Amino acid sequence: MERVPFYRQNIFLAVTACFLWATAFAGIKIGLQYTTPLQFAGMRFMISGLVILPFCKNIRKDLHLLKQNSGRVLQISLFQTVLLYIFFYEGVARTPAATSAIVVGAGPLFVALLAHFFTTSDRLTLRKIISLVFGFSGIILLAIAKDISADNRTMVLTGILMLVIGNICGSFGNILVSKNKTGISPVFLNAIQIFTGGLVIFILSLFIEGFEFSVKPPAYYISLSWLSIMSATAFSFWFIVLNRPGVKVSEINVWKFIVPVFGAILSWMLIEGEKPQWHTITGMLLIAISILVIFGRIKNGGRP
């Protein structure tokens, strides 16, 4: 059997995607200083979709399959981009970047929970239930942290709730992608769903936030460019892995714990006023324990 190069293996692609996603929290916080959440998200994902298209092969074949499966693609776009990132951006806008990274890092727990109900080969076990208790304890700790001032407690709690809802939407989107039997290539599927989702978010922003064009500082364009390219690359890698035979959506999502760890560290380094606090560290450790419990014995010699 021919050995698969390391750069095409599931773990390499998944970990690379997670490293890239970890940079998003600081980048979004920087960009949101100069624009509104939904407008920023819509612009980012429309650009991401356009960036991916030149790398798609057999576009004519994929377009034919797209016409036959437009409903499924729109469903994926609704959960994987529109709902996920509406709640994500609104949540990040209301919470410290490090806290956002940690809450979003609980995503694998939501995937494990939803996979039980929507797949036949990925059921809840006692190990998974115990891990869910630890993981949600970490989220609750972040939500009730005493050093969140009374003035912004409601805003932060609202932000955490939005991030949790976004987690649920994104988890369901992951399941839809893993069950994709349309024949559309993962890269093209990602390009179409992410552009469509970005367009919908941008149109919604015009009604919810209004539109005001102005020349912005270089930091805005740098963050927008990086986030767009990062999303195009990370989601393409992730879709490729989710579409591979034998991949369990709950197990491959274990690697997403890299996101809150590095997301929090980058936020502490790059965002003025953010620093490690006892509740962020403890919440991170609880979520880490939960994921170690749930995925402590991954089959196939540690390969998801």
Structural features, described:
By secondary structure, this protein is an all-alpha fold. It is 73% helix and 0% strand. The radius of gyration is 19 Å and the shape is globular. The two termini are 19 Å apart. The C terminus is likely disordered.
Q: What's the helix and strand layout?
A:
Elements: H1 10-22, H2 24-31, H3 37-52, H4 59-68, H5 70-94, H6 97-104, H7 107-118, H8 126-143, H9 150-178, H10 186-208, H11 218-242, H12 249-252, H13 258-270, H14 278-294
Helix pairs in contact: 1-11, 1-13, 2-11, 3-5, 3-10, 3-11, 5-9, 5-10, 6-9, 6-13, 7-8, 7-9, 8-14, 10-11
What is shown here, in short?
With 304 residues, this protein is mainly α. 73% of the residues lie in helices and 0% in strands.
